[in-house]
Amino acid sequence: MTADPCPAQIRLAFIAPSGSGKSSALDALRDRLATLGLRVTSLKLAEPLYRLQGSFYATAGRQIAEKAQDQVLLETIATQLRRIDPAALIRDFERRLHQCQADVVLNDDLRDDVTDGPRLRALGFRTVRIVTAETERLRRLTGRQDPTVVECSPLDRQIARIPADFVLCNSAGPEVLSRQIAGLAAHLVTAAPSSRGVA
Amino acid sequence: MSGMVIVAGPFGLRVGEATGLLTLIEAPDLSPPGAAGLCADLRPHGFDHLRPDLVPLALARREGQGLRLLALAMRVDAHRLHFWCPPGAAVMVDEADLAPRLAALFQRHHLALNNFECNLHPIAQPDQPLRCWRLAPAAVGADLLPALLDWAEGGHSGVMLWPGNELWHLAGTVTLMRQLAGPDLLAVQAGGRRKKPAFDSPLWTVERFAPDARGQMRRRAEESFATDLQGHDAAPEIAAAHLTGEGWRRLGHLHRTTDRLGLECLTAGTLIEMDLTRYHGTEGGLAIWLGLRATASRDPADPGAAALDRLAAALTAAFPGLCNGPPLTEEPLMTEISRLTHPAAEKEPA
Predict the structure, then answer these.
(1) What is the pLDDT of residues B87-125, one digit of tens each?
(2) How far B227 CA sits from the closest chain A CA (Å)?
(3) A104: closest CA among A22, A176, A20, A31?
(4) A168 vs B242: CB contact, 8 Å cut-off?
(5) How do residues A93-126 score in pLDDT, each as one tens digit?
(6) Chain A contact probe: residue of B201, B237, B238, B242 with most A CBs at under 10 A
(7) Closest approach of chain A CAs to the CA of B231, in angstroms?
(8) Do B181 and A183 touch (CB under 8 A)?
(9) Nearest CA to B79 among B56, B58, B59?
(10) Strands B37-40 and B81-84: what pairing?
(11) CA–CA dist B344, B127 (Å, integer)
């Protein structure tokens, strides 16, 4: 593994079962940090999986939107890829991370607690767990119109085992979440190493 | 002369089986009970507490030609009697009328007198009065706890050790968290389990410390009985988020041990917990707190604050003599504890 070219970078991984509002929380934090003058980018562990998903659909003569999730297919590809090489996804991710010059890197698709999770922590990622009432999570999941849906994935148990540095509660609506996001952003900026310039 | 009289007779009178004669025994050297009660050992007055036909049933005082009932026997142990005066029970009676009047009082107040361990009126959280002091570790030796027990047993400031709840020892690991959108602190600790054939769910206790108008940190505790946390055995932050509906930042783990004295105020019926708590940080730090919290009362109209303040004043005055150390320093409970998790963990937002 090469030396980290951006040791002062703020790195956060959002973890939660599907439908908990990870993407919404990530977007809200990105917007908040951007108003504080920080350059923010998102990196997905699953980027290779989406590429392969596209190939499957193309081979089948079907179309799928770039960010759409055929969850059954994505999980199947991930499972087989890990069978071949458990570190395949995290190696690809680390390569892309080292090319990233942003002040903040956000990730929202960490699910593996054995290989990916420990390596992300070693790379300086702190985890933000999103907690949502189960009824609300399932309501959001069915309303998202994904091609296929896995309501209770066995991967959720892995996610539960990943230790979290922060927790956000997303059961009470956008205003409550917004206050939590503001507090998180303020802490990240205050606690960040001073070697990185912040507006 | 105090005019104090011990009213003794068959135990059956307490439970509606009024038979036999009552015996009045003059006890001039017996101090009158406080407004709420008295804990006494009457064996020096010739009593065998458990002799069924001559159980001390009430304390009274001679006033003129009659008797003023002052307290009724609530708890009868071999070595100790707990007398309590329910509201409205301090009545004047004629000696000739004593047995039926006493039986009627026991019947009227039977719920409180027969259910002395559970017929209590909880003081609702977060209104539980709370006072706390930080102790220098050097001032806390192995003899402080026995000294506190002796002090409490001595009846200072109108309290006594709460019979049946005199001493607890609690130990566990707490995960400490700081509120993302405010100043509150959270201590999350694993508890028992809810287990049936269909589910096996961990229970978590969440204690929230928030400042009040006086700058004191008020404590509110909640257990996750009504929240399904199955599968979340190792994730205290999930319990924290579900039970509070808010976001938190994990500060770290502390090992906490508490020696808890149960106290009962004899002037008001207030039940107070005195906690001597040690917080051990993961990097070797130690913080020690002494706290008083009013949790319940035998009197439904008692909010607990007055009794707590009286006890706090008495404890503050007595403490240097108990440990041969410096006086108590009152301080918000969690100021120092959060820094135990990591010296640099606590940076307040700009």
Answers:
(1) 788 899 998 889 989 999 999 999 888 888 888 888 876
(2) 10
(3) A31
(4) no
(5) 999 999 999 999 999 989 889 999 999 999 999 9
(6) B237
(7) 7
(8) yes
(9) B56
(10) antiparallel
(11) 33
